[in-house]
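Objective 1b: paired records.
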Amino acid sequence: MGLQEERKVAVITGASQGIGAALVDAYRKLGHAVVATSRTIALANDAGVLAVPGDIADPATADRLVSAAIERFGRIDTLVNNAGVFFAKPFTDYTPEDYATAIGVNLTGFFHLTQLAVGQMLSQGGGHIVTITTSLVDNADARVPSVLASLTKGGLQSATKSLAIEYATRGIRANAVSPGTIRTPMHAEETHHFLAGLQPVGRMGEIDDIVGAVLYLETAPFVTGEILHVDGGVSAGH
């Protein structure tokens, strides 16, 4: 049991592809055990990775994730809230289904899983929460209608700061990474030229840019409440 208790454990949502899958690999290279979840995640060949399929919008998924992490690995040191949905539609075109999906994945999933993870971290004496948001939250762009993203991911950025301050003296840090447009399977190839043009640097970001930002925050004990923009200059201006 001693080795189980000494090895750090990361829980990563939205972990089946793109940024999430890369984060699983990155935390394994750090020596962490990983509990990875998404609706379609496959079983892992790595004994240090526990795959738990589930819809993060369902509160029962959070219960199963935390229970599985404790049962298998004994603790939770880091939670990466990576799962998210984005609908680029004019405000008046959003459907009730769009709203329910965005609230469920982006907010409800974050709330239940983070609450349970923080409870576990408090019992251990500390931990780290990293949440992936979007640079559009505080840098709206007329070319990319994003009210529903701002409503939900903006809430996550504010919650990150509140968590950081509430638990600053209790060993728990909370930070966010705020990406620009990143080259992931979410974006069809034919949209890449347009999306590259949205970033002042003239290109899309890469998955490794976001992974590097998360790993920096993971290893920065004096950083909490930070919204780290990794957006090719979007947050600086146009």
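Objective 1b, second protein:
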Amino acid sequence: MDLHVVGEEPPERGDAARNRQRVLVAANELLHSCGAEALTMDALAERAGVGKGTIFRRFGSRAGLMRALVNESEIDLQRRIVFGPPPLGPGTDPISRLAAFGPAVLETLELHGAVILAGQTKPGARYEHPAYQFQLTHVLMLLRQARAAGDHRLLAESLLATIDVPLVRFQRNQLGMSLDRLGAHWEWLVRATVQSPS
């Protein structure tokens, strides 16, 4: 996936940007209501009020559309982390920010986990992907700010492993665990791992 991180989005013409946004909003609505399997180009064109040709010209294929949805979702998450209100964004203590981070990622995985998982064809490639690197950098920064004991890099990777796509999808689909349960466990794990400085 060609993720454009916050502040690096490529410029678009006004009408192209509007059409792109209409398609992405409609696609997200269909994903929420019907799931990824029911997201057809015909249904999307009707929902967005554009021709199928417009969708194909902008995204190339259904796979290209799905990649764009994941990128849009990741960019939105990054914006909320960097510029949004606390506790996910700046303005509170690092432990509270770290506790809020897991549930925010879980929300993204709930909507786009199937697409993200399908794109993970090369073992280990996801750990070099800009989205993962952003998340790793963010968690590392918060662990350092919280003065966590131990190896910060290994701690960050261990925490991120608990919200990795294959595991979360198995927990949700095969074990029937709720998002609330997974989010509460993330917060418990963060607070058990990172103690407030005395």
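The domain at 10-60 is CATH 1.10.10.60 (Arc Repressor Mutant, subunit A). The chain has two domains: 10-60, 73-193.
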